[in-house]
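User:
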Amino acid sequence: MKNPESKMSHPCRDRAVKLSLAALGAILLAPALPVRADPGQDNRAPDVPPTLEVPDGNKVSFHAYAVGVQIYTATPSPTDPTQLVWTFTAPEAVLFDSDGNIVGIHYAYAGPTRPAWESESGSLVVGARRALATVDSSAIPWLLLQAVHTEPPGIFARTTYIQRVNTTGGLAPAMAPTQAGQEARVPYTAEYFFYREAQH
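Assistant: Predicted structure:
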């Protein structure tokens, strides 16, 4: 069953849209980052470290640009409960196509370990992280996620894998939090590639 708060009217969309529109212009006007494909697989797939490659038999079905925030909350350190640390709690982003049209949102479906992507038409994919790679030390890692739940119809139906690549920003603040429950919303951008099983 779909999370009732995952509808496109969710308040996170309104906040993320306001944050995202200015950043979107910068993305679309900036020089394109090299996104090369492995000719042996899929000419729409990005060039990624080997650990983030999608298994053979899957092809890119959709590509989106994300602009939003990575949300961190101050919690007691697991190694020293007297100290506070930033703990990742959720993404909150708007998804755009290559023409700058809003096509969906990205949020935490069931906590930070189950991120979701929901299209304007209501299709949904929930992912679980399978691998990560730090490509740029000033940005959040690139990821490979496997779909664990999808809801048709629409662009995310039958999704098998998701890659997060070409990330900017999003890292937890360098300065330690000062009080429990404190929240930090750190701007980030990324590209997401969605895959389906190839049709034979």
